Amino acid sequence: MVLAEKIEEIIGLTPVYRIIALASGVGKTSLGTEIVKHLTSNGVKLAVIKQTHEKLLDELSDPGRYKLAGAETVFVSSPELSVIYREPFTGLKEIIISMKYYPLIIAEGFSGSHIGKAIAIINDPDEINELIKVEKGLWIIVSNDLDIVEKSKSIGFNAFLMDETEMIANEIYKDAVRLIASKFSGDPEVCGVGSWIELAEKILHGLLQPYECPFAYPLKIFVDGKLVELDRKTLRIIAGMLEGFVSGLIETTVKPKKIKIEFDLSGEKE
User: Fold this and answer.
1) How many domains is the chain partitioned into structurally?
2) In what order do the strands lie in the sheet with 138-143?
3) Does 225 map to a domain?
4) Which of 18, 44, 78, 206 has a beta carbon 3.0–4.6 Å from 107's, enabling a disulfide?
5) Are residues 26 and 102 both part of a single domain?
6) Taking residues 183-212, what's their average pLDDT?
7) What is the C-alpha to C-alpha distance for residues 93 and 170, in angstroms, rounded to an integer?
């Protein structure tokens, strides 16, 4: 598994695939948009994160004027789109944990972040060795040069030509299904599916949320130190309600990893 265990805990059940290159202007956005088209046309719900060094804030626009006036965050909402202007994030991990849950993320850029798996566009064979040094998550190599593709395959990488975007999208889909399914254990029928692969596919298509299966968010309720036995459906409902309620109470964009509630009905003071 490419993702480190600590990072997996933070990101949760979201497979991340980064499109990277050592040079600019090699077609990262073109490759990314084609991959996104193939995945979304098959019903996959995903988010895209793009790293850019271009200036985003227009000081003469209304949002720019509010930001320059001192507002820490400016939220612009229209019938077409919502845009948030705020201080820059420090890295890919912070961006992901600040977002609402998406079952899959395609990121353009963020080379060397070690989050998720990297899809590298290469035009020079020497770039492979350079990337291996900095990219622990190097997974797929893409090139317009057939010799580079064949060489990459010979040393153990998945490799494709630039126009084989549907094949790349299929590899991403299969890998995402495997990654999500690997997070669950036990009897999948408890979650209303025949297999964890089926559950993973439903999550990727937005038909189920991970918390709807108790194996994703285990919940135990104790009364006076005694574990209360509840059926799986009830546990799923309580877990979902608690997550939504607590998320609304805390003033942070970071999703809590563990919630502990103590309620003393005795009225006695400690």
Assistant:
1) 2
2) 47-50, 105-108, 16-21, 117-121, 138-143, 158-161
3) yes
4) 18
5) yes
6) 87
7) 25
